[in-house]
Amino acid sequence: MGSLSIVWLASVTGFAIAACATPGPNNAMVASSGATFGITRTLPHIFGIGIGYSAMLTVIALLGGEAISTHPALHEALRWVAAAYLLWLAIRIARTRPKVGSGLATSARMQPLTFLQAALFHPKGWAMAVSGAATYAAGSGPETTLSVLVMAGIFLVIGIGTSGLWAGIGAGVATFFRTEAQLRLFNLAMAALLAASIAGLWFEG
Q1: What is the mean pLDDT of residues 106-128?
Q2: 141 within a domain of the structure (yes/no)
Q3: What is the Cα–Cα distance from 9 to 12, expressed in whole angstroms?
Q4: Residue 205, domain member (yes or no)
Q5: What ranges in 22-141 are assigned the alpha helix state H?
Q6: Which of 29, 72, 119, 150 is the most buried (most CB within 10 A)?
Q7: What is the extent of the structural domain holding 147?
């Protein structure tokens, strides 16, 4: 499936939408950030997700996918590191004390993720990248390289778009929820979603 046919492009696009738009660790984080800090301050987070994942997908597809898929110990180590990081972030969100004012929440106890932090935050992404590379860009040579780069570009556009949508949902929540208690409840829900996603690390295949 390395050929850049219309069917291939449609299939990769559908895969990217399903992977990026559904609730998960990154979307829970960016929704909470949008609610707490607003879209403008969340932009580095949004672009970090899209660019970071596309870069990781490219590297895994061209260089490291086989190492992860054929070395169970490496795969297992990545699971545990990701689980620990997800739990730490969930606690971080849960401990946030938002202050509501002028339709936007703020927090002195938490800062939005930086571009680099967001670019590196893909706790379940390596498995999805390995799966995507094996399905849509298997093989070697210039044609495969082109397929990988096109797939990464598709994920870049869709990743930034869907992350922006989730940040917008969070920002909308901040204007809809008029009390600090209501916004804190939203952040607790996002923290719970983040913590629950840890279990998915052992079921992503």
Answers
A1: 71
A2: yes
A3: 5
A4: no
A5: 25-37, 39-59, 65-70, 72-94, 115-120, 125-136
A6: 29
A7: 6-200
